[in-house]
Write a structure and sequence with these properties.
Elements (H helix, E strand, L loop, with lengths): L7 E6 L11 E2 L3 E14 L11 E16 L2 H12 L7 E4 L11 E7 L2 E18 L5 E8 L3 E2 L19 E7 L13 E9 L3 E3 L9 E3 L4 E9 L2 H12 L6 E9 L4 E9 L8 E3 L2 E10 L11 E6 L2
Antiparallel strand pairs: 1-2, 1-6, 3-4, 4-8, 5-19, 6-7, 7-8, 7-9, 7-11, 10-15, 11-14, 12-13, 14-18, 15-16, 16-18, 16-19, 17-18
Length: 314
Amino acid sequence: MYIGPNEKIQLDQEATYAEGGAATVQLAGVSLSIEPQVEAEQVVDRRGDAMPAHQAIIKRRWSEGQIEGLLAYDTANLLLDSMFGLDASSPHAYIADLDQSVAPASICLYYGQAGLIYKAAGCLPSTWEISGSSNEAVKHSWKFFGQPVVDGASLAALSDPAPVFAMGHHCSLYLDPIASAAGTTLLTDLGFSFKAIINGGRKPIWHLSNQAPDTYRHGRWGGSLMLSIEATTAMLSYLGDILDATVNPLGLAARIRMTDGSKIFDLDFAGQAIKPPKLMSYADEIVTVDFELMPVYSAQAAFLSCWKASLTLP
């Protein structure tokens, strides 16, 4: 009998795209959904009868899905590697590189329990959403595409993990003009929530002789950052700058720092306020300024991108 609570989620960081190596990491605090994708077509022809079809063809196969749940410091490097490219040593450093020349590290996923285990190799993120708010755990959603799902795989004999999860009380927000270095001005006791959506613009590719994706293409970096911050004089000044802009939208450099004291995860973002925020927003009856920022290239010497990240693990 298949019993849901007995499921495990394991993965391997692939050295070569879609190689499908044995699992080396077991995840905790998350759920996994994998949706097999099959593009098929019925052959409609003339056979002297009124049947809808006599045959069908399968044109291409792949998978899509998402990992979602709590963000653990211990395995965040694997997801960062899959989005920005491999950095194997701590402190891990990442950047949305200008020409997408750094190959992302794909992941092979295993899901199920003894007797029925599914495997999806060559998984890469289409988007990665990270969100946090006061008094809550930091959550994330890693949406991916990958090779066709196969059954009959095997789970590895791995120890139960003991992850450290990022929490709202681990988080700090920094906000500065885009010409300044990200992480300069700490908003002490002002931030309420954030939601970062990182988009690498990648898509699977099929060439002749391949029914499954044989590679992937890079695209344009994208995403957004939403911040909810208490309406202090300084934050209302930013709001005024957004409303007064007549030539270029206001540009800001933001840093979200998560740390439990020994592990540090920094996510840096350069963006513009393309849409003005609401004039009066509230969080628990406190007036807030809610920024919705779109990514833009920062020419600041320490940035030179729109997304950066670093992860320090002891």
